[in-house]
């Protein structure tokens, strides 16, 4: 089955046909780096990582760009509210640049722990101001902008297709959206900022043909995607919350600047529901810790879970479905993952039956290529329980199955097991000198020693 994906623009599954044979260009909206990544954001990045791996499994050379928003994203997707970066900078008494680097590094650390492959290009908004100004100049020349004392605006009335993907009716925006009105000089409520002006208290400022200021949020994604992938590229991803404002505005400014199609396939990941429903932050905080699902990956690890159990949990819901995230679902995913790691390679029913293997493989492939039906993929793989099949599709699943099953397979001598148990006890009692001595003992026996949420783990050093 050829790879089909659901295109938000047409609201249909379509066969993926790339612009250039054998290649796939992919742009994903990245983090605003003012805080640790929320597990909800990480669900979107796991979906995009699966897409990237599925494209590669189908033989495409993938060029994946994911931006880092280190300037000018307001508290909402509209233009109003305080700047998230600026707010964090005040909260932590650091410069916005320091804040951005710190949380960018934290995000990359989370990606690695979740086996999210690092995109080929991770451009930072602050390093692409020139490209953003160039697009605004093109828009100005073509008559799509107007300037007020507050900002350079995009005039949405000039783009008849505005809001097409989101199926927005501009009239309704006047009443339904209260975040869009920033200043009285704005002509239409849906008009959005390309370049902010006259904001002397803002810490990040650049000079521009319109005066000192800083870019609106949306323009950065147009600038960085087109710079690295060309003015028309294959796939653009993001969370569903990006459809009505951010992606709608990206399309408007990109297509008006270039005069042609911006993106060929739009794909959007659904929400992660914390605690199993649309729960407010305050309600979540009222829950006891053991009932409240962790909100960051570090919290998840600190509470003793394997980060890959979270990845496995993400695979159990389709990316276009809302997913309930509860402590119970995380526990179930941990148990399920341990079961996979316990798969016995020596009892593989499919290993020596080429025909049966081909049939099974095709079933998995068809599910995967049907708009990334990962819950079915995982279901089929679990039903066969074939080590060889798991390993082949782990190129897409990213669950480290080969690595972890080998570790589980290795039977440790009793003397080593005793040392490990003694060390875990010493660590639990915070007896660090004892724990260090036992560590040295294990190293002397020829083992590498690591600390994981499950306690001491060892691996025999290869001689
Ligand atoms: Zn974006």
Architecture overview:
By secondary structure, the protein is α/β, with parallel strands linked by helices. The chain folds into three domains: 4-269, HUPs (Rossmann fold, 3-Layer(aba) Sandwich), CATH 3.40.50.620; 307-407, no CATH class; 410-460, no CATH class. It contains 17 helices and 14 strands. The chain has helices at 39-57, 84-92, 96-113, 129-141, 170-176, 217-229, 243-258, 281-286, 297-302, 307-315, 327-341, 354-369, 374-384, 387-397, 401-409, 414-428, 432-444; strands spanning 4-7, 12-15, 23-28, 61-66, 145-147, 151-154, 192-197, 213-215, 233-239, 263-269, 272-274, 323-325, 447-452, 455-460. A four-stranded parallel beta sheet has the order 4-3-9-10, with helices on both faces. It has a four-stranded antiparallel beta sheet with strand order 5-6-7-8. Helix 4 (129-141) packs across helix 7 (243-258). The structure holds zinc ion. Zinc ion (ZN) is lined by residues 29, 221, 246.
């Amino acid at each position: 089955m050829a790879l089909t994906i659901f295109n938000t623009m047409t609201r249909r599954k379509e066969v993926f046909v790339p612009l250039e044979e054998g290649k796939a260009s992919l742009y994903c909206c990245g983090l605003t780096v003012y805080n640790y990544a929320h597990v909800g954001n990480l669900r979107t990045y796991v979906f995009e990582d699966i897409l990237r791996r599925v494209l590669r499994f189908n033989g495409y050379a993938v060029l994946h760009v994911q931006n880092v928003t280190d300037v000018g994203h307001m508290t909402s997707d509209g233009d109003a509210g305080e700047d998230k970066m600026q707010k964090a900078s005040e909260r932590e008494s650091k410069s916005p640049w320091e804040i951005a680097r710190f949380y960018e590094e934290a995000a990359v650390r989370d990606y690695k722990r979740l086996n999210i492959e690092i995109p080929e290009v991770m451009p930072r908004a602050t390093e692409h101001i020139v490209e953003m100004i160039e697009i605004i100049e093109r828009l100005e020349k073509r008559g799509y902008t107007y300037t007020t004392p507050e900002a350079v605006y995009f005039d949405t009335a000039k783009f008849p297709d505005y809001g097409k993907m989101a199926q927005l009716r501009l009239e309704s925006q006047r009443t339904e959206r209260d975040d869009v009105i920033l200043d009285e000089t704005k002509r239409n409520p849906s008009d959005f900022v390309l370049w902010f002006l006259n904001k002397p208290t803002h810490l990040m400022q650049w000079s521009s043909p319109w005066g000192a200021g800083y870019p609106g949020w949306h323009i950065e994604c147009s600038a960085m995607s087109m710079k690295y992938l060309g003015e028309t590229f294959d796939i653009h991803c993001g969370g569903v919350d990006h459809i009505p404002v951010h992606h709608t505005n990206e399309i408007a400014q990109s297509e008006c600047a270039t005069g042609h199609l911006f993106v060929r396939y739009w794909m959007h990941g659904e929400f992660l529901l914390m605690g199993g429903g649309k729960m407010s932050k305050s309600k979540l905080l009222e829950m006891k810790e053991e009932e409240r699902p962790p909100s960051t990956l570090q919290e998840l690890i600190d509470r003793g879970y394997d980060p890959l159990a979270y990845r496995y949990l993400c695979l159990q819901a389709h990316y276009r479905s809302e997913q309930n995230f509860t402590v119970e679902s995380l526990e179930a995913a941990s148990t399920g993952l341990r079961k996979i790691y316990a798969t016995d390679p020596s009892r593989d029913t499919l290993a020596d039956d080429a025909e049966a293997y081909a049939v099974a493989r095709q079933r998995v492939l068809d599910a995967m290529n049907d708009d990334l039906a990962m819950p079915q993929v995982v279901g089929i793989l679990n039903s066969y329980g074939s080590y060889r099949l798991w390993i082949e599709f782990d190129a897409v699943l990213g669950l480290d199955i080969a690595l972890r099953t080998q570790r589980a397979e290795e039977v440790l001598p009793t003397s080593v097991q005793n040392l490990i148990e003694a060390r875990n006890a010493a660590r639990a009692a915070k007896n660090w000198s004892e724990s260090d001595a036992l560590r040295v003992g294990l190293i002397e026996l020829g083992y590498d020693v690591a600390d994981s949420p499950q306690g001491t783990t060892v691996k025999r050093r290869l001689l």
